């Protein structure tokens, strides 16, 4: 995948974000599409792991070491989030480093990790149970490239929209495109 193509996709997304800077509906849709595309990319990542099943079949210690290191990483981040919250006095104030989820107060970090891990596991398990000749015929790499391009498009949209919103909120008189 050429870097120029990726950059162009990001720029196209940015132009879309700038054109839709006044549309809350477009921003909400973009955020949902970003989340769904990220989950799809994680699913593809799981499928790519399963396509290397020979590595796991030869030595199960590699498989269990990967699972163990992933669980250790989750535990380390959970502990860090907990310590930051304890040091800063919880989530009640605006000084918290992580915003509360729209569904309720706190806990969304672990939910996000669980969902992301579930997407990887789903892709892995689906391709792991498929017979090797069937799994080999599925074009995982091109699908992954297109999903990555979609994610870049949505990230470009959100990046330019967020920057435009910040500039308009903080520097309104300086820029002609900001509404009065």
Structure, described:
The protein is mainly α. The protein has helices spanning 3-19, 24-51, 53-58, 60-88, 108-129, 132-137, 140-170. The chain is built from seven helices and no strands. The longest helix is centred in the C-terminal third of the chain and has 31 residues, at 140-170. The model is unreliable at 93-105 (pLDDT under 50).
For the termini, the CA-CA separation is: 42 Å
Class inferred from helices and paired strands: mainly alpha
Could you describe the largest sheet, including whether it forms a barrel? none
Our Rg estimate from Cα atoms comes to 21 Å
Backbone shape: flat
Task: Kindly state the percentage of residues in helix.
Answer: over 70%
Low-confidence stretches: 93-105
The fraction of residues in strands falls at under 5%
Write down the secondary-structure element order. HHHHHHH
Quaternary state reads single chain
Q: Can you count the helices?
A: 7
How many strands? Answer: 0
Question: How would you describe this structure in keywords?
Answer:
180 residues, mainly alpha, 7 helices
SSE topology sketch:
Elements: H1 3-19, H2 24-51, H3 53-58, H4 60-88, H5 108-129, H6 132-137, H7 140-170
Helix pairs in contact: 1-7, 2-5, 2-7
Short description:
With 180 residues, the protein is mainly α. The chain has helices at 3-19, 24-51, 53-58, 60-88, 108-129, 132-137, 140-170.
